[in-house]
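hi support,

uploading two proteins for the ticket. first:
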Amino acid sequence: MLKSLEGYIEPGSEADRLVRDIDFRRLPQHIAVIMDGNGRWAGRHGKTRIEGHKAGSHSVRETVECCGRLGIKVLSLFAFSTENWKRPSREVQRLWKLLRDYLRKEDKVLVDNDLKLVVIGRRDGIPGPVIHELKRVENLTRNNGRMTVALALNYGARTEIIDAVRRILAEAPDAADINEDTFSRYLYTAGLPDPDLLIRTSGECRVSNFLLWQIAYAEMWITPVLWPDFRKHHLIQAVLDYQKRERRFGDIKAAGSP
């Protein structure tokens, strides 16, 4: 077991049993997560939707820590979509407040664990106090290198692609020079590797307008577990399943095969 996992994973637990089968030479470089099921979790437990979101924040903390300890280089979390503005205004306001409070409480955790925060999505429309906290934490962690946490806020993949096209048109590069690599540099995720593994909780079998360009060859792992119940052993399970798959990228042989 990695030294970073010692004392973190309880001996004899489900996570302990699973982690022993991980090949740490073949970890996904980038894991993206669609965190779904907070509302349904709240309904099942007789709680309000905002209480469901608060419960989900504990899963965020555990997932970030577990990915960092495993050695994952990038973790992308779908936190607030462009479509989420359709929700009741009171819920939307409470969500932004919850995020602002979370950033104030967790900034030390990011710094102490050498984690870098970046935000992907349209910043226009995000409440001013939240933008202030996001900029503060981004600046505070900009030189950290253990893992990058990409927080998708006011994010929609179709909007991202449209924004990329607009930037290309504005800069007017030679059309002959535009290829997949150059187009990727105009996306919100410029500089980040594409996801290797996409995790979706709550059992829904759709990508919900998340990283449509970037997940072209990502392996998908869908679990019926609702996001507030997602724990380290579920993450380790997803990584193990990922390692059992052959990634051929359109070829007849797995990548790296002779």
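and the second one:
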Amino acid sequence: MKKLTALILALCLCAAISGCSAGQKTTLSFSTAATTGALYPLGATLANLWNETLTDVSVTSEASGGGLDNLNFLYDGEADLGFAVTSIMYESYNGTGSFEGRANEKLRVVAGLYYNPNQLVAAKDSGIESLADIAGKRFAPGAPGSTTLVESELHLEAAGVAYPDGFTPSYVGFTEAIDLIRNRQLDAAWIMAGVPNAAVTEITSTAGGRLVSIDEDVIDSLMEQYPWYARYTIPAGTYAGQDADVTTTAIKLCLFCSADLDDDIVYELTKTFWEHLDEVKATNAALSAVTAEDAVTDLAGLPIHDGAARYYKEIGLLE
């Protein structure tokens, strides 16, 4: 009788443990970007997709200052997933630039997404026709913690403009820049985002702004120095009053995570995203031209997470 009672108790205990395990979910924090940009709603869309499709994860998307913040959050263990461009991901992985002394060798790519072009938008009456003309002007290089801030610094230094002493800086985000240009309190702003970008659209259509091309010698110099840059053309007609192509630089935007994240979970996240890409595109214009091939190209040599790589091998993108 005692043996039977012990057996029943053991079976009940096993059942209880199995029931708890079956109901457990892995909670993931997804750091995106400012609420005014394209990445915040994209992050919300992906989180909802994963939560509705997968039974073993619970993803919460969070607003952030941008790529720099996201990579620091990952390093500090405060986020599991995030968005950033390959330039600062490269610096984070290698512990250089903004991440000096904080190398994160566990940084992994989940998916390459689309090119994020740098967009210099200036007031029509500012006299700014090139990067060098920003010298002495009122300029918004980006919000604190944003990738935009890093990009404007690299480009201005390449153009010979002292940073930040060579101009009057306003460290604001896209929305604030719109109002400052409209109110003639700002001469130009740097915006790094997918094309077309809502802030650039508003500046060019209602705030008296226009796009300015990046100098070819600056583009050549940057491409020689850094492995992540590509030459990019914003076609004429993309924005109001843009009657000619605008030449600039662009960097691949990526979804990233830590190597410590479980392979099976990353595989599920990756597979679900790409198999529902059309649904995601329907509500996120920034992904309109993205294809699965973009997932593994132009990643500046950064490693892909093993779980994501498993999916890309299945569909023939990796060997």
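thanks. also noticed: Residues 2-23 form the longest helix (22 residues).
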